[in-house]
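Q: How do we represent a protein-ligand complex in a form that can be generated token by token?
A: Start from the inputs.
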Amino acid sequence: MAGGAGMKPLAAHFATAPRLLDLRGEFPALPEGWAYLDAAATAQKPRPVIEAITNAYARDYATVHRGVYARSAHMTEAYEAAREAAARFLNGRVDETIFVRGATEAINLVANSWGDANIGAGDRILLTQLEHHANIVPWRMLADRTGAEIDVAPLTPDGRIDEAALIALITPATKLVAIAHVSNVLGSVADVARIADAAHAAGAKLLVDGCQAAPRLKVDVQALGADFYCFSAHKLYGPTGIGVLWVKKPILDAMPPWQGGGAMIDEVRFERVTYADAPQRFEAGTPHIAGAVGLHAAIRWVEDIGIEAIDAHERALTAIARAELARLNNLRLFGPEETAGILSFAVGDIHPHDVATILDEGGVAIRAGHHCAQPLMRWLGVPATARASFSAHSSEADVALLVKGIERTMRIFG
Ligand code: PMP
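Then emit the structure tokens for the protein with 4'-deoxy-4'-aminopyridoxal-5'-phosphate bound:
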């Protein structure tokens, strides 16, 4: 192992040391000695995903759903096989699984379709203090259109959704609870099933933003009790420009279309249009064909390794990083002890951008900023944080470089 000079060996951090994965060689865009610790923003791509996307364009390419020629029929099969894989990955049904541009589009789709049909003046939408802007702004826009109100569930002092306090905020007027499964800033994991039970008991629906959970946790939409679940492929080792929205069948069947165009219709006349069934009703236009193929390859890659193994790997590295950083004076760690692969911190009163710049000079890529979570920054009392996020390819050597870079930052800033 390539731990830093002062770093404890892995086994010293645990009663029983977890087995770390060794997958760096599968990622061609990771040069030797570069610690990519920004997977929460977007994941690097393993070779099978890159090959699948290349083949989709260089060997198999054609449109889907419309062509009668064999190439198009094969591409359609590949596109629909990706949908089946995505549905299975979430333990949902194929006809509940919609391809979207990403989590942002998924939530906008729900807000515009289900939201406009089901939310009115006086209704309440319950969010939490730690949401990503993608799970705030579409609801604020819906509330502004309809006269609905937004409630905000508080966090525990260590930065988890305070589930008891959230449940206490659910009223008969609450029509929707929308939460992040895993916080993109703090890595804290929500007890989704508990929140789902409380939401359903009050007649509310539950939307889960699974952007940071899908690459890290076993997701089972049935066990979680979600009504809507979404994630972006690019955080799950897949391509940008595609994501998945899963919606429980009876809810989806009643949802009106959002975007109109080709592929989502049954019959078109100037006077009247009838629409296709879901999921086609929600996929207007030519879809991201190669993206779906790439997502399928990413799901296969993750399933081959095992999401539980990736989760254990990232948790182990996060625990090591927390322990190593906790030894440094003047370093503030945000978030709970136990997190899924994501760690935010502050180095004294050095601006996180300066921390990230100096780390970059030492070959460490972290994110610095508000992470599209300004309300959470206000709650933390900082304008920004430095964030390291781990991935299946991360290693103790990456942690060692991170620690070394932070020590150097501290020396530079005295
Ligand atoms: N929610 C969370 C928790 C996220 O981390 C992100 C991406 N940073 C999003 C939503 C939005 O995802 P995308 O930009 O891929 O649509």
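DSSP finds 13 helices and 15 strands in the chain. Residues 102-104, 132, 134-135, 180, 184, 209, 211-212, 232, 372 surround 4'-deoxy-4'-aminopyridoxal-5'-phosphate (CB under 6 Å).
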